[in-house]
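Handoff note, outgoing to incoming analyst
You'll be picking up this chain. Sequence as last confirmed:
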Amino acid sequence: MRSLKKGPFIDNHLMKAILAMNAKNEKKIHKTWSRRSTITPEMVGHTIAVHNGKKFIPVYLTENMVGHKLGEFAPTRIFKGHSAAGSKDKAVAPAGAPSAGGGGGGAPAVGGAPAPKAS
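Most recent structure output, in case you need it:
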């Protein structure tokens, strides 16, 4: 948390680029590594490509983003799902197969015919 009397932190090179684009009234993508910079009202409407450690993620800045940091909108980690190794412990028997109890005399499987009785 930054003190209010200090104001928001914005890297000088980024602020210069935004002010220059505002003066020329142009909207082009600006690449930056400055994830720590706070989004200000002057930046609204611009697209800034924020580096996430591997590639640049284009972020279109809106009014709702003012006060947040640029890095919040360019995630550095990508969740690819849990591995299948954990699901081997909890293997589910296919439908209609006998249960692990081995009783064989229970109710029929849903949608299946009743098992013939042995005499």
